[in-house]
Design brief:
Elements lengths: L1 E2 L4 E5 L2 H15 L3 E2 L2 E5 L2 H6 L3 H13 L1 E4 L7 H7 L8 H9 L2 E6 L16 E6 L8 E5 L3 E7 L8 E8 L3 E5 L4 H18 L2 E6 L7 H15 L1 H7 L3 E5 H8 L6 E5 L1 H15 L5 E6 L5 E5 L5 H8 L9 H18 L2 H19 L5 H4 L12 H16 L1
Bound molecules: NADP nicotinamide-adenine-dinucleotide phosphate and magnesium ion (MG).
Magnesium ion (MG) binds next to helix 10.
Length: about 400
């Protein structure tokens, strides 16, 4: 048994990923590690029972202990409210956790030889850094029922004169939205990106729509540039370049780029582009995600959702072939960080071995359906959810013996 010094926050979730969560813990983590897990059940029923307090508690626990690992969770929509008989459409747990921890989400694909990215030029991972605060995720919206005037007003706390802008004079029904961001959050986002780029020795890109949004997006661009300027000598010493461009241009360039860069994105762009990148690199099952808080807390998870369609097949007793790679890498990412913070190289080594066991299992031809579809050569057969994890367990045991 390898001892993990500091407790880790373990957040369970929903549907097919909840099924895999149990398997991964029982077969790949708990038999080998003496670790105290501070457990929170973020499954949608528990969130409903506790009026979502459990999510808030989990976020504070991550801040307290420093490292957490999270299973995918349902973000309820109207269909989910009906399906689970929920009191209300609870907010996205990830949104709640991000709002409490602030910070930046880095999404990085796992590259496996034999599974070729859909985009041929991508030979190295492209990490998306998503600013995890504000914009439409903290918006205020009004459904405008009919004619009237919409205004944006800022009232200074010191009693100074209010600043007002007419948004639109409605002749008929429409919609209205206001959003915001904070200088501190933008700065800490830029800082996290610089730190990550230095740590990973990768060039850094940032893109926004400052040609259209000459105040809001321009502010993002300028504050980001200030952080770059503050770290210019470190970046130069590491041979890392910084490149700012318009978001449209960044998207076009990325499709012909070889990769090996950190692409910093505004909140919405990061949300959308990370799914595009995951699909482009092969499968959502190969995309990992970490939220890095400026207060030094880390939350690891798979980038995909609860894989609902597979879960319904599972409930009918049918065999599933769901890829647990990103879920396992959430655990290894969290363990490696815990080991780094605790100064316990044996924990980091365990995480490395488990990651290698996963990659070698796939490279050895045992893989789930999502990968089998895009693998070269095509494997003779597709592994089930359970068979894939069992094959990894076998390799891991061999590596540790
Ligand atoms: P999803 O769970 O990511 O699944 C979308 C599709 O991608 C699946 O139907 C499957 O395709 C494929 N896929 C994703 N992960 C896979 C894996 N590990 N192995 C194999 N195939 C995989 O997204 P969704 O269906 O849009 O969302 C389902 C639920 O997840 C929603 O309630 C949503 O709120 C939630 N969600 C949570 C998070 C999070 O907690 N971080 C993120 C996104 C969504 P095929 O069916 O074609 O095989
Ligand atoms: Mg998304």
């Amino acid at each position: 048994m390898i001892t993990v010094k500091t407790p880790m926050v373990d957040m369970n979730g929903d549907e097919m990923t909840r099924i895999m969560w149990g398997m991964v813990k029982d077969k790949l983590i708990l038999p080998y590690l003496d670790v105290e897990l501070i457990e929170y059940d973020l499954g949608v029923q528990m969130r409903d029972q506790t009026d979502d307090q459990v999510t808030v508690d989990a976020a504070h626990a991550i801040a307290e202990y420093g490292v957490g690992v999270k299973c995918a969770t349902i973000t309820p929509n109207t269909a989910r409210v009906e399906e689970y008989g929920l009191k209300q459409q609870w907010k996205s747990p990830n949104g709640t956790i991000r709002a409490i921890l602030d910070g930046t989400v880095f999404r990085k694909p796992i590259l496996v030889s034999g599974v070729r990215p859909m985009v041929r030029s991508w030979t190295k991972p492209i990490t998306i850094a998503r600013h995890a605060y504000g914009d439409i995720y903290k918006n205020v919206e009004i459904a405008v029922p009919g004619p009237g005037e919409a205004e944006l007003v800022y009232r200074p706390a010191d009693g100074g004169a209010p600043v007002r802008r007419v948004v639109h004079t409605f002749d008929g029904p429409g919609v209205l939205m206001a959003m915001h961001n904070l200088d501190d959050s933008i700065r800490s986002f830029a800082q996290a990106c610089v730190t990550y780029a230095l740590d990973q020795r990768m060039d850094l890109w940032f893109a926004a729509k400052d040609t259209i949004s000459k105040t809001y997006h321009a502010r993002l661009r300028d504050l980001f540039q200030e952080e770059i300027d503050a770290h210019q000598s470190e970046l130069d010493a590491a041979g890392i370049s910084y490149f700012y461009t318009l978001i449209d241009d960044a998207v076009a360039r990325i499709m012909r780029h070889e990769g090996g860069i950190v692409w910093a994105c505004t909140n919405y762009d990061g949300d959308v582009m990370s799914d595009m990148l995951a699909a482009g690199f092969g499968s959502l099952g190969l995309m990992t995600s970490v939220l890095v808080s400026p207060r030094g807390a880390y939350e690891y998870e798979a980038a995909h959702g609860t894989v609902q369609r597979h879960y319904y097949r599972h409930l009918k007793g049918e065999q599933t072939s769901t890829n647990s790679t990103a879920t396992i890498f959430a655990w290894t990412g969290a363990l490696a960080k815990r080991g780094e913070l605790d100064g316990t190289p044996e924990v980091v080594d365990f995480a490395d071995k488990l990651e290698a066991a996963v990659v070698e299992t796939i490279e050895g031809g045992t893989m789930t359906g999502d990968l089998a579809r895009i693998a070269e050569p095509t494997p003779a057969r597709v592994a089930s959810t359970v068979e894939f994890i069992d094959a990894i367990e076998q390799r891991l045991r061999h590596k540790l013996s």
